Amino acid sequence: MPGLVLADGKLSLRFQGGGTHILGGDVNHGTKAFLNPGVWVVRSGGSRGVHDGYEFGGDIIFALTPRLGIGIGVGYMQISRHSEMSISPEEPSLSSMLLIVKPRLSAMPIRAGLYLTLPWRGKFNFLADFGLSYYLRARYSDEPMSLLFLGETLSSYILIDTHAESSKIPIGFHAGISLEYELGTNLWLYLGAWGRYARFRGWEGTSMLDSNYEPPVSELEQGILYYEVVPTVIHTPRLLMVQSSPPDGPDGFPRQAIIDFSGVSLQVGIRIRL
Q1: Which of 91, 111, 119, 211 is most buried as measured by Cβ atoms within 10 A of its Cβ?
Q2: Letter string b/e over residues 26-48, b meaning 16 or more CB atoms within 10 A of that residue's CB
Q3: pLDDT in tens, 77-87
Q4: Residue predicted with more confidence, 47 or 230
Q5: Average pLDDT, whole number, for the chain?
Q6: pLDDT, tens digit, for every residue of 70-128?
Q7: CB neighbours of residue 202 within 10 Å
Q8: Triad 99, 262, 253: Cα angle to 5°
Q9: pLDDT class for 251, splitting at 50, 70, 90?
Q10: Is the pLDDT of residue 222 over 60?
Q11: Where on the phi/psi map is residue 137: left (φ > 0), alpha (ψ -120 to 50), or beta?
């Protein structure tokens, strides 16, 4: 049976790639808050959730018994989404505004876990795995822009260029199951699904605020990534940005942003027995 012959070859290599879907956390809250028309009317576009991306990687599995193994692996995942919204006053006017956000998340999960092989129907195996993941180089970036036009002419703009990286120990949990088909003595093709819990706060980085409003502003903030629970000024958007001394908003307070990599992945790959 395919599951039993693994004891003869102690090491296996797995390579996989596919799509991933995450919750996002305050990345999505910040996107929706920034794309807020306020008292203006939405003419086109809207907020799109930052959820879907791609993931690929590989694992080394050492068989302790024909059915039980331990393994370590590394992958790379990236999730991004472009959203924009065109708004203008309700009354006819030459003024219009374009709001744009470009959030991007990436990380290199380093996995360690147990693998359980369950033979099924001759050349088929179920391979279940679970363990811990360390999210190396977990990063967030965005460039929210607010562009004000008078007719076709750009009148003023606001740009917040933010880059942040997880500063604590970003450890999560993962579990998955794969259906394998034996193509040859040492080769299997498989389709797998993985779930993960990976929810982190304590992101450090920089935000560059650039504006040509009067007076013009060009400021660099260094510190912790915050999500303001309510706007600092009434009728202005909430902010997801790095702040050194976050101000309290009206009737509220800022909090450290939570970026959530929790979600599911669907992967296709091969396993090679050495």
Answers
A1: 111
A2: bbbbbbbbbbbbeebeeeeeebb
A3: 999 999 999 99
A4: 47
A5: 89
A6: 999 999 999 999 999 999 998 888 899 999 999 999 999 999 999 999 998 888 999 99
A7: 16
A8: 55
A9: low
A10: yes
A11: left
Rounded to 5°, angle at Cα 92 from 87 and 98: 20
End-to-end C-alpha distance for the chain, whole angstroms: 17
How many residues would you count in the chain?
Answer: 274
Give me the phi and psi of 34, to 5 degrees please.
-70, -40
Contacts of 100 (CB under 8 A, 6+ apart): 82, 83, 84, 143, 144, 145, 147
Residue 199, CB-side half-sphere exposure with 13 Å CA sphere: 8
CATH of 4-273, one of 2.60.120.560, 2.40.10.10, 2.40.160.20, 1.10.3720.10: 2.40.160.20
Which residues share a beta bridge with 130? 114, 175
- pLDDT tens sequence across 147-160: 999 988 999 998 99
